[in-house]
Design goal:
Elements lengths: L2 E3 L5 E5 L7 E6 L5 H9 L9 E3 L5 E3 L5 E3 L6 E2 L2 E2 L5 E6 L13 H18 L6 E3 H4 L13 H5 L22 H12 L14 H12 L10 H11 L2
Parallel strand pairs: 1-5, 3-9, 3-10, 4-9
Antiparallel strand pairs: 2-6, 4-5, 7-8
């Protein structure tokens, strides 16, 4: 795979051990063009960066050495990890984002992402379940890579999990506390930023939407429907 080097100054100077790298976090740039994205990711004033940027044509630009911490995740949590910058590799995909005319990701872009992710997964021994979206680890702040990102396709290459079509094994009972069941499942999967035993927490809707954007992208309502609950149960019991 051909990779263009165009390093950003927005990285931590201290090198990290290979064993510290546990996650790959996928983002979209949310800007009008690749040129604008590169400028922002290299601007010291922005204080943001990533390890790799993939444009719509599938070209890969490396913006930080992998043994250094790039500033892409910000305030974040996943399982027992907090502030995932130090334990992750950040990959940005050129896309205008929800505020500027959200687009489908191109075939070449996703092909390059898959090829790059396969190499990273093998080299750094990253677990299948540790390929995450920015919205997974920061659901109160972020919505990228969004509902058009093809998580199901990536799962076919062992990059993240998906669910099987047979969800009916999990019986949906109307008299059960669906909220408590759902958030127990999400906690087991790795999501945070909610309280299981609190009724209708203010963060509920954002966390539910983050989950739906990834696993039930045709129905991102922020409400726990039957399919959303069934998917959460399937994933929590893999």
């Amino acid at each position: 795979m051909k990779i263009i080097m165009d390093l950003s100054p927005n990285v931590s100077s201290k090198k990290r051990l290979k064993s510290k790298i546990k996650f790959v976090v996928i983002h979209y740039t949310g800007m009008q063009s690749e040129i604008e994205s590169l400028k922002r990711l290299k601007n010291p004033k922005s204080k943001v960066s990533c390890h790799f940027l993939i444009n719509k044509k599938g070209a890969v630009t490396q913006m930080a050495e992998v043994n250094k911490t790039a500033w892409h995740a910000g305030k974040s949590k996943w399982k027992r990890y907090v502030n995932l910058n130090s334990s992750s590799i950040g990959i940005e995909l050129e896309n205008k984002g929800h505020k500027n005319g959200y687009e489908s990701f191109s075939y070449l872009q996703i092909k390059s992402l898959i090829n790059l992710s396969i190499v990273i997964k093998k080299k750094y021994k990253i677990k299948r379940e540790n390929f995450l979206g920015h919205s997974d680890i920061s659901p109160l702040r972020k919505i990228d890579p969004g509902e058009k990102f093809p998580w199901q396709k990536l799962s076919k290459f062992n990059l993240g999990y998906w669910y099987t079509s047979n969800l009916k094994k999990f019986f949906f009972e109307n008299n059960k506390n669906h909220r408590k069941m759902f958030f127990r499942n999400l906690f087991k999967i790795g999501y945070r930023y909610f309280q299981i035993n609190k009724k209708n927490g203010k963060n509920d809707r954002l966390v539910i939407k983050a989950f739906q954007q990834r696993y039930n992208p045709t129905k991102v309502t922020g409400k726990i429907d039957k399919k959303t609950l069934q998917i959460s149960h399937f994933l929590a019991n893999l």
